[in-house]
Hints:
Number of helices: 18
Number of strands: 6
Oligomer: single chain
Strand content: 5-15%
Amino acid sequence: MLRIKKLDIFIAKQFGLLFIATFFICQFVLMMQFLWRYIDDLIGKGLTMDVLAQFFWYMALMLMPQAFPLAILLSSLITYGNLGESSELTAIKAAGISLLQSMRSLIVIVILVAGVSIYFQEKIGPDANKNLAQLLISMKQKSPELEIPEGVFYDGIPGTNLYVQRKDLTTGKLYNMMIYRQTGSYEDQAIILADSGMLQSTAEKKHLLLTLWSGEWFENMKQQDLGGTAEVPYRRETFAYKQVLLDFDGEFNLADASAISGNAKAKSSKQILHDLDSIRQGNDSVGRQFYREARAYVMPLPQLSHEDSIRIAVVTDQHRVPDFDSLFTSLGGDEHREVTKNAARQAQMMVNDLQMKADMAKFNFRQERMHEIELIGKFTLALSCIIFFFIGAPLGAIIRKGGLGVPVIISVLVFIVYYIFENSGMRMARDDNWTVWFGKGISTFVLAPLAIFFTYKANNDSTVFNIDAYRLLLHRMLGLRQKRNIAGKEVVIEDPDYVADSQQLVSINEEIDAYGRAHHLLRWPNPLKVFFRPGDDRQIIDISERLETVIDDLSNTRDKQVLHLLNQYPVLATHAHTRPFRQRWLNALTGIILPVGIFFYIRMLRFRFRLYKDLKTIEKTSNAIVDTIKNNVIKKQRDNALNDNNETSL
């Protein structure tokens, strides 16, 4: 039977308070990010407070499931960071309670939050998305004089297309304007060109007043009884100043929701599954129909004379398949041009038809993928709550830093990684570059191993952020090493045995000479011996150990020249020049994987060349130290003899 312990209540209380606070912080950040995208649709539109309140309310409901994972990540980081910083986590582990056992109550809470996320996305999210989209469309349709873009035609005003080359945001004037008005048929159209103008709403918000300067007005006149002529009369007017009143209801009215009813974000999982079946059946039927029509394309022959038709029939009857090249060359000049013109026209019609069908098929399949993306996203977003918890809690236990400093930085970094993979995967899946399940699941595939790794390391008290350990590993991988730093000692208990050390250095040099003659370090070794045969270079290991003993003894000297020479000794790598790893199975595996084996083989050659240079340096340095010791001994003997002579003379 599961019992609720005081520790579970204590940790759950700390996590709960932090989760509520961080949730509102994350919700505020996400709302500000979303608001910044649509700030132009809100400013200067004269929207009432109830409309703005609806906008913020639906936006908050829509973004609430996205705020859950980030709030869980930040609150779990701070919770376990505070426990580690105050040594409470150490006391918990000292009592025999593991990290995973201390997480029991929080795991239950996080699973409940994930369930709430699914509920929001199923029951509340679709309506919030639909209402928010409806509000955004309605906002864009209000006060169109603020929405007119530069360099493109704007059709937000009923019955009018407006083109503006440039607009001045300070004065509100529009420059190089072109207006197309169509109130009825082709016979009742007008084209207005103006150097500049202004577009303003009237006081009752029922019309738009278009003020124009320096322009021309071209207008088709309604056709009356013109004796059957097909030409439509028009009038032309040149003006210096003109005002045009356009019908437009500037009051805020909700747009028709039927235009956004097909949006996948406005549907629950049950509705998406139901609509997906219909969309797939429709796409299959449309695709089969397009395929049949594409195969049915036949280039029709031109209208020919009776004699040419008989000749084509004879050729067709004799050869079963007509020889179009022969038929084409047998035609006359006018027929030749007519056939060429018809063929080019029909080919262009086919190309246009196929392009239109391709665009339609692309749109239909995009709709199918968007429904699949939204369906999978409902569950991956809830699953990210659990993954973020198993990233945040172990990281908090590892870094042992509470507050809003380090946890916020780490949370932002983790969320940026998640955001990049999530959005990139969604775009690639939407554009049919990746499969939908892979595009929507790539963020989970990346972060789930991180959650398992951090949880394992934190539960076993392993060091993850030990900079020295990573620096040492990097040095070993790249073959880097630190120089010796032997300094003179202020207190020397026992002076070095210079005679014995000199003899050892001479013996080491002799052994190095023998090693160099026996081992050709500048030659490329046999790869089979490198990867598939065990064995260490015991001679180099012995040389390194003996040299380190001599260096340790000579480090007690007071002679600055000897200390300077000792720091010139390199630190020998005793294994890297023979094989990549010490484990036999790992060497064999590296040799089998050819690209990896080539890398480590080249790395081993580099270590062999470095060992060759190190041995030369050791010989040179040892000779210098031996000479220095001999000179010091001779000088000391001379000084002693001089002192003896002085005492004798006295």
